[in-house]
Amino acid sequence: MKNIGRILLPIIILLLTVRINAVPVKAFDMIERNLPNSEQLPTKELLCIFQDSEGYMWYGTEGGGLCRDDGYTVKVFRSDFKNPGVLESNSVTCIAEDCEGKIWFGTKRGAYILSKTDYEIRALADETIKSWTITTMTATSDGMIWISTNRHVFRYNALGERTGKYILTWKGQENTVNSIYEDKKKKVWVTQAKGGLFCYDKVKDSFISYPWPYEEYPTSMTEDHNTPYYWVTTWGKGIVRFDPKAQDTDKMFGLQTVDNASSNSDTRKLHHIIQDSVKGYLWVTAADNLYAYKITDDASLDKVDLSRLLSADRKILTKILSDQSGNLWVTGYYPSSFIISFLPNEVLPLSMEGVKQNLGVIASPMQFSQEKNYYWIRQKKLGLYAYD
Length: 388
Fold this sequence. Notes:
Blueprint: H1 2-21, E1 28-34, E2 46-51, E3 57-61, E4 66-69, E5 74-77, E6 92-97, E7 103-107, E8 110-114, E9 121-123, E10 134-139, E11 145-149, E12 152-156, E13 162-166, E14 169-170, E15 173-174, E16 177-182, E17 188-192, E18 197-201, E19 206-210, E20 218-223, E21 230-234, E22 239-242, H2 249-252, E23 253-255, E24 270-275, E25 282-286, E26 290-295, E27 301-303, E28 316-322, E29 328-334, E30 338-347, H3 353-359, E31 365-371, E32 374-379, E33 383-387
Antiparallel strand pairs: 1-30, 2-3, 3-4, 4-5, 6-7, 7-8, 8-9, 10-11, 11-12, 12-13, 14-15, 16-17, 17-18, 18-19, 20-21, 21-22, 22-23, 24-25, 25-26, 26-27, 28-29, 29-30, 31-32, 32-33
Helix pairs in contact: 1-3
């Protein structure tokens, strides 16, 4: 009976006090975790990531080759002393999949095609771009593969035959295409380093430029899921809302000022952008970290507070992928690549100051058990309590 009295007294005290002090601090419904099987990767430095039609993940590494993760093991494709001559460079810059299920990937010295039936790798049979650094590649819905390299854009069919070659000039200068993107209307768009924004015209078989108004060049783009706009990242200007149907340049391009007040210019130097399929947020990799933005009713942006999800420490990140389940895979160099997943319900951190006020110690629960609207908690060294 004495033991029961010891338990009941703190229960009564906590039921009276904790109800007042247990105030929700801030809700969040996202979690961050490491890549699965990351310990099997030849290096932590990832340049790109891709999910194929079967759901498998492919990683392009800096110096470690191409990696395929089936959820259990990582298979590595690279040149080494056991397999010399497989690749001219083990730095994989981009990955795509053609309409026949073959994996195409670019390296810092040429492009390659991998057959998933026997894992045989062959170099793309185009002597023109052999040993060139492949900047980016994209497979489009018509079965074509678009490749950017050495200030040129090339188009190939699934057989590896070249079907087009394009040189894009901006203000009289030939510059490198740094991203290739196909929208829902099957239009192909490209952004150009130290240049502007272009769209492919199938009738003219050429790229048509748009009147990009900024000195800071575009780096990537994505089509909005819910509005007629596109969102374009820049190197130094932040995010721009783009309306290709607008006749006036001022209305065509809308610079977002959400980060203009920041003294840290790295927040406006952006690499890559995607829109997640769960919340519809825009996510960007910047020169210093990962950022997210909510699209408002008037098609402007509000910054999402990620302080409870990610540290403010400087990060060196590259690409973002939204997988078939809606998870976000973020690749980079430092500190390491990671995954962001969305929880079905919000997680509410609750203050338990009532424990410290009444017991003189911080809350240190060892076990929990829920019963209707309250919890039974075994507090370290002090016994059993009820928490409402």
